[in-house]
Design a protein that fits this description.
Chains A, B: Its cofactor is Mn(2+). The structure is a homodimer. Helices cover 35% and strands 21% of the residues of chain A. Chain A is of the alpha/beta class. In chain A, β1 and β2 form a beta hairpin. The interface between A and B is large, with 70 and 70 residues.
């Protein structure tokens, strides 16, 4: 199995070695994502699975059961951020395929059909809109995003249609409630809690969905050499303290609360961004996460208050737009408990935790009993070329998924 | 004259009205700069001046004198920053042409030839390299800049050659010392000192050349939702205090020093700049100016010290590159005194000051007696669509330049 995992990991990542200093770039609905899906189809065919795609670009490899439905579903995604790692998403697809291989080798006969899914465009890296594929399957995609553009001006609609699909048919990707029994996703942790607690896998209770703010400050551009310090309306100087504040206040709030909170100024645009011009306009993107929605709201409100103070102090105009404000998602208690028990029966130590990152499972959980398994990734490094899970961690994932699928599909 | 100034101002700016909400964009060696030079040639021809260009793209409109040389030269530039104003550069060319018109109308016969110059590519907006035209005339252009690129990847060499010139001949633009008697530039102040001191024009003693630093911080990218606050190496959080420090320290140093100092974090690049990724890499551009070179050095040293503290505190790696470090330029005392006297004899109140911005005159001053006249621009707003000097200010400029040229070319 180890050899098969190593080989298939590289196949899904379209590389000969996982040592890629510039990382992996497979944006949603890009040629690179399609290539990776093609590699997935090849592996699925080798395992005698039937592959089909839907109108959102999701791909399913199906093992027929004694009954036609409901389906036991597992999987994740194959797209990445820019210069990301080779495990985020891929690990879940790979371990699902590995579990199928194991079950086939054991001669298991599923009662329920099993489907391994590759959800399309999970990352928000390209359009700022995440989990387009799984939202479509759950029937919760907001079609008003069709004209949201990537940084080259390509809209979501255009990107999807460039892969041969028809945007106006995307609703057809929705699956009826009675067609699916349960969904289990496996993903890399993208943090160090499993490692810190000397566990082997994480079992996730809730997914922290973000509040995302766009803070825009308008001051006054001017010549850097001729505008005295006291006469400036420098938008960058006005917002610099906000960067420090977001970091310090998130750390403070997190320390005094029962649930963790993280907040990040992650994007920034400076205009006109010329060496001899005072910055007249700044845009900051802020990402706030906690499974405790009220703590998240508290942090956002503090940022808004801080902006009011900075606006007056630095004589600039600050506007704040809320891009995203989704409540956090709790996963299915019964399924989660049974996944946890399955892992522990295999001798693995579990750690119960929350997920700071959004995953496809949060959309599936809106409609079907769903669970999320984390496997460790070294030093918590993710969305980075150095992202790495060991073959032993992937093996743990295969072991647990094998047990879970056997139980779910055999019942 | 007022009507002619208004009409010619618009002609040189290639517009029908100076009210341009998105400003003026004529980058160095662009099609737009060439169009403006074409408009200059038309006006020069109407004034019966002979126009010629050199191998650096500078354009000269010449009024022959009784002797062949040395030439009395005046003028400025026609290129702008992106979305800049219509007076920076243009005012100096316009007032020079206006002075010629006035002298011709008076029947003045110059002993020395007079040349009105439009120096090519004065602004650093396109390449980060300023005053390419006047450096070439003074013979101090560093030819190693040939491969410096604009943000579209076009090199200086390619840009110059796209206008029909040959980079390998650019040295031919140098003028021998004995060919030029003196150079007087008129420019908008780009500040409010003239206005603050209730004067009509500024007479400049020295030009503050910048120290420019590029500060690069490398931390570690990571997922914004899964990396606890205490485990981050956020490059943006590490450099945010530097933005505040540069502004506060410049204000403090300036207040306790005999010469003013300004310092600005003017450019910024954040990588990967994705909503769900912690900034792993930041680049800041810092522009420091004062005619007091030691004060400028002191500010740069303080920035370097501050970076050492931030590097340790935030566990990131900081590298600092010095892009530019030029000593400040003192203008010709005798010529400056005579320009000042000429203005005062016309009843205008002068204010002696330093220039925080670099101008073509600083290169000319390296070789020939040179002076710089400032006219006011409203509220000191410059490099901005709202940049504005009144027709009355331009008239003041014409009056003073007329007197100066009459004196310099008549002697």
């Amino acid at each position: 199995m180890n050899e098969w995992l190593e080989k298939t990991l590289k196949e899904l990542n379209l590389v000969d070695t996982m040592d890629q200093p510039i990382g992996f770039t497979r944006l949603g609905y890009s040629v690179e994502e399609l290539e990776s899906i093609k590699a997935f189809k090849k592996v699925a065919n080798e395992l005698d699975l039937m592959v089909h795609s839907d109108q959102a670009g999701n791909t399913f490899a199906r093992w027929e059961g004694a009954t036609d439905f409901p389906v036991v579903m597992t999987g994740s995604h194959l797209d990445t951020v820019e210069s990301g790692g080779g495990y985020d998403g891929v690990a879940g697809v790979l371990c699902a395929l590995g579990a199928i291989k194991r079950l086939k080798e054991k001669g298991f006969q599923p009662k329920h059909p099993i489907e391994v899914v590759c959800f399309a465009s999970e990352e928000s890296a390209r359009f700022g809109v995440s989990t387009i594929g799984s939202k479509s399957v759950a029937g919760i995609l907001d079609k008003s995003v069709e004209n949201v553009q990537d940084r080259h001006g390509v809209t979501i609609k255009e990107a999807i249609e460039s892969t041969g699909l028809n945007w106006s048919n995307i609703e057809e990707a929705e699956r009826p409630k009675n067609e699916i029994k349960s969904f289990v996703e496996l993903h890399i942790e993208q943090g160090t809690q499993i490692e810190d607690h000397r566990a082997h896998f994480g079992i996730v209770r809730g997914v922290a969905c973000p509040i995302r703010l766009k803070v825009k400050a308008t001051g006054m551009a001017g010549h850097t050499g001729t505008t005295p310090m006291g006469k400036r309306k420098d938008a960058l100087v006005a917002l610099a303290p906000l960067i420090t504040y977001v970091s310090q206040e998130a750390e403070r709030l997190s320390a005094i609360s029962s649930k963790p909170l993280v907040a990040t100024v992650s994007t920034m645009e400076v205009k006109p961004n010329g060496m001899n011009v005072i910055p007249g306009y700044i845009e900051l993107g802020i990402d706030i996460r906690s499974v405790d929605d009220s703590l998240k709201r508290q942090m956002a409100d503090k940022i808004i208050q801080k902006c009011t103070i900075l606006e007056t102090k630095f004589n600039v105009t600050i506007n704040i737009e809320t891009l995203v404000d989704n409540p956090s998602i709790l996963l299915d208690e019964k399924l989660t408990a049974s996944v946890k028990a399955a892992g522990e029966q295999l001798g693995y130590i579990s750690y119960e935790m929350d997920s700071g990152a959004g995953h496809d499972v949060m959309n599936m959980a809106a409609k079907w009993p769903s669970a999320l398994i984390f496997i460790p990734c070294e030093e918590g490094i993710s969305h980075h070329p150095k992202e790495h899970s060991t073959i032993s961690d992937l093996q743990t994932g295969v072991d647990i998924l094998t047990a879970v699928l056997q139980q779910e599909a055999g019942e």
